Amino acid sequence: MREITAVKRPPEPDFSTITPEELSAYRDAENRFRASSAARAITGEPDPGAAIEWQEVALPGRDLPVRVYRPGPTADAEATARTGLPLVVHVHGGGFVGTAVQCDWTNSHLAARLPALVVSVEHRLLAPDSPLANAADDGWDVLRHVLHRAAQWGVDPARTAVFGESCGALITALTAIRAREAGLGLMAQVLVNPAVDVTGTMDDYPSIAEYAYSPSRALPLLRLLRRLAVPPGTDARALSPLYADDLSGLAPALVVVPTQDALADHGRRYAERLREAGTPVRLSEYPAARHAFLAMPGVEPQAEAARTEILAFLRAALAK
C-alpha cells in the first residue's frame, strides 16, 4: 500500500440505508483519505524515532498486510535496538472502514519510546461477505505468526502485549481470551473506546442513548457494524467479549474510555466484568473526549494524555 496525497475526504453516507456497493465505494474513498498526507492534520505526524513499513505475512489461506513500526538505532548499535524487543500487536478501529495508517501517531511513538516492535494488523474489514469472525482470526493469527517467528522479527516473546481501538479493541479483547485458552502468556492488553457487545443488547446502554446522534451519528453506524459483524445464524455471544463465560486469568488490562462516546458504557461494563473475574484492570476515563479520540490528536486535545498513559502502562507491563 502507498500513502496518497491531495485526497479529499468523502461525505459520510447514511449508514441506515447504505447498500453494499455504496459501502464499498465509501470505504475505499475514506481509506484513501486516512492514508493520505492531507489526513495528518487530524491523525498526527509519526514519531521520527521510528521506522515504518508495510509487510505481508503468510497466514493460513491468505496473505495479510501489517504495518510495522521499529525503533531507530540506539547510540550503542542498530542491532541492539532491533533484537529482543517487546512486541505490541495493534488493531485499528473502524470495523468496516479504517487502516493501520490512521494510527501512525500513536504506534510510532510506542515503538520509539518503549521501545518495542509494534505490528498493526490490516485485518479484513467487515462486509456482507466478511463477518467479524474473519477480522478476529486475523488479529489472532498475526499474533501467533510473529510469536512463532520471534527471532526473525527480533522480539522477546515473553514480553508481548495487545492493543486495540473501538472495533479493533473488540478484536483485541477476543485475542486476549484466545491467548489465555492457548496458554500464551500476554503481559498486557490495552482497550481504547472498546465495542464489546455485538448481540441484540448492543444498544441497551445509557451512553448509547445519550450520544446516539451527537457529537456524531453513532447509532446508525453501530447498527450497521452489528449487521455486518454477525450474519444470521451466528452465535453473537461468541464474538462479544462482554458475554464470555470466563474472563479470569487474562492479561492485565487498561480500558480507556472517552466519556462523550456512545460506547462509553461498553468499556465501563467490560472493566467491571474483568474486575469481577479477578483480572487486573484499570479503567481510565477522559471527560469530554469523543470516540476515536486517540487517532485524532489534531482535533482532540486529550489524545496526547491518553497516549502518555498507554505508554506508561505498557512500559511497566513489558519491563524486563
Please give a structural write-up:
With 320 residues, this protein is an alpha/beta fold. It has a single domain, classed as Alpha/Beta hydrolase fold, catalytic domain (Rossmann fold, 3-Layer(aba) Sandwich). Helix content is 36%, strand content 21%. Strands 1-2-4-3-5-6-7-8 form an eight-stranded mixed beta sheet, sandwiched between helices. The N terminus is likely disordered.
Please write out the topology.
Layout: H1 20-34, H2 40-43, E1 50-59, E2 62-71, H3 78-81, E3 85-91, H4 104-113, E4 117-121, H5 132-148, H6 150-153, E5 155-165, H7 167-181, E6 188-192, H8 206-210, H9 218-229, E7 253-260, H10 264-277, E8 281-290, H11 303-317
Parallel strand pairs: 3-4, 3-5, 5-6, 6-7, 7-8
Antiparallel strand pairs: 1-2, 2-4
Helix pairs in contact: 5-7
- CATH T-level fold name: Rossmann fold
The low-pLDDT segments are 1-5
**CATH level 1 name:** Alpha Beta
Q: How would you name the oligomeric state of the polypeptide chains in this document?
A: single chain
Order of helices and strands: HHEEHEHEHHEHEHHEHEH
Backbone shape: globular
**Sheet having the most strands:** 8 strands, mixed
Concise summary:
The protein is of the alpha/beta class and 320 residues long. The protein has helices spanning 20-34, 40-43, 78-81, 104-113, 132-148, 150-153, 167-181, 206-210, 218-229, 264-277, 303-317; strands at residues 50-59, 62-71, 85-91, 117-121, 155-165, 188-192, 253-260, 281-290. The chain has one domain: Rossmann fold.
Question: What descriptors fit this protein?
Answer:
disordered N terminus, Rossmann fold, globular, single chain, alpha/beta, 8 strands, 36% helix, 320 residues
